[in-house]
Amino acid sequence: MNGPDVPPLVSGSIFVVPLKANPKPSSEDWRLIADEGGGTVIPAIEGESSFPNRPRSGREYLLNEVASALSAGTREELLRETSYLTSQKTNGYASEMMKLLGSQIKEDTDRWALVAAALVSPLGIPRPTIADFIRGEYGADGTSWRGSLAEMSIRRLAKSSDGKEKLIRQFLNLSNLNEWGTGIALRNLLRPQAW
Predict the structure, then answer these.
(1) What is the dihedral of CA 110, 114, 116, 117, to 10 degrees?
(2) pLDDT tens digits for range 77-127
(3) What is the pLDDT of residue 142?
(4) Contact (Cβ atoms closer than 8 angstroms) between residue 64 and residue 55
(5) Vertex 135: Cα angle to 129 and 140 (nearest 5)
(6) Could you give the count of Cα atoms lying within 13 Å of 19 in the half-sphere of its Cβ?
(7) Is 155 exposed, middle or buried (0-12, 13-18, 19+ CB in 10 A)?
(8) Model-level pTM?
(9) Taking the CB of residue 32, how many other CB atoms lie within 10 A of it?
(10) Alpha-carbon gap, residue 128 to 134, rounded angstroms
């Protein structure tokens, strides 16, 4: 509380450190994306990317790293990644991310449900309900949700006949890691007309 806002850097954690060109290149060529805040680094997972093509830009590299964590990470790694994503506005790259995820997850409804549950669980209040995401109805401030990664993953899952059942199972699966967030989402999902 008394120092700069920095991400929780604990021994054994793996991060991507995104850089930007320094406006004063005479001192250093590169600098962190931000001076402080949890978004100065991106959680990542160990291992080579499973995407066949080498990234052609820094943006592609970062998207591949995030998609790798979402598609292949453990529950803990997935929640770290989605907690990072909820501090960002994902609308600008959600379509690209869904294509990357689709190439890795394919038709694995359990994994799609885990990704969707992990994306919704760390959201603050007020938050859209699962039904809001499916219908695209967000009330007064819909701009932050429309086209987001959370919306797209929930909508993809809703197309599956067993999507609701699997989403409930994955909320329960994550409940020991994120009790409050999964509890709120699960309560909203179990309401009448919630799917």
Answers:
(1) 130
(2) 999 899 889 878 899 999 999 999 999 999 999 999 999 999 999 888 888
(3) 66
(4) yes
(5) 65
(6) 7
(7) middle
(8) 0.84
(9) 15
(10) 10
